[in-house]
């Protein structure tokens, strides 16, 4: 629990707000939710206990508080835990998770792709307490068509396509670019 508190403090320093803790039945992990601030106009959802399985925590974002984001993050955490327990490998950039449902109501986005924490200030992406080194990675909501494009052409091609199309990847109700 000490590392969880340290991670919460680390996130608080970067996000500028205190996180509220949630626990989901989908995975036995804690998720901290940091509200939007004037400096950061989006809500941030952070896993806090996945570092035990591969030294990585996951971040997800939305412009409004969405309870379903907590559920989806916990379900992704459960997939990460299963992979760690069966293969002792951590997931890397470009890994795709099927949500089984849309990310939020009135959205067609039903997958999430893992990337480095692009939207964060330098220094957030790694935390160390002198013993543990924990990486933070970001999950972007994408549509089925975008997940298929990613599978066929790779993460860099998808990122270039989304950037060229002017996609705001924090907008979880956006229309697919592909």
From TrEMBL:
InterPro entries: SUFU-like_domain
Top-rank taxon, per record: Bacteria
Pfam families: SUFU
Domain Suppressor of fused-like residues, every copy: 29-174
Protein name per the record: Suppressor of fused-like domain-containing protein
Species: Brevibacillus brevis (strain 47 / JCM 6285 / NBRC 100599)
């Amino acid at each position: 629990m000490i590392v969880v508190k340290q991670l919460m403090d680390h996130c608080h320093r970067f996000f500028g707000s205190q996180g509220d803790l949630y626990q989901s039945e989908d995975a036995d992990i804690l998720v901290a939710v940091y509200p939007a601030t004037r400096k950061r106009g989006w809500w941030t959802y952070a896993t806090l206990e996945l570092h035990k399985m591969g030294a990585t925590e996951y971040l997800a974002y939305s412009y409004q508080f969405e309870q379903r984001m907590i559920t989806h993050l916990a379900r992704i955490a459960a997939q990460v835990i299963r992979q760690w327990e069966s293969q002792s490998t951590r997931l890397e950039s470009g890994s795709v998770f099927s949500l089984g449902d849309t990310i939020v109501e009135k959205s067609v986005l039903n997958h999430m792709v893992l990337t480095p924490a692009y939207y964060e200030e330098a220094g957030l992406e790694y935390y160390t307490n002198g013993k543990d080194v924990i990486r933070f990675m970001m999950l972007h909501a994408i549509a089925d068509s975008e997940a298929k494009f990613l599978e066929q052409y790779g993460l860099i091609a998808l990122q270039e396509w989304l950037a060229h199309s002017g996609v705001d990847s924090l907008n979880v109700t956006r229309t697919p670019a592909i």
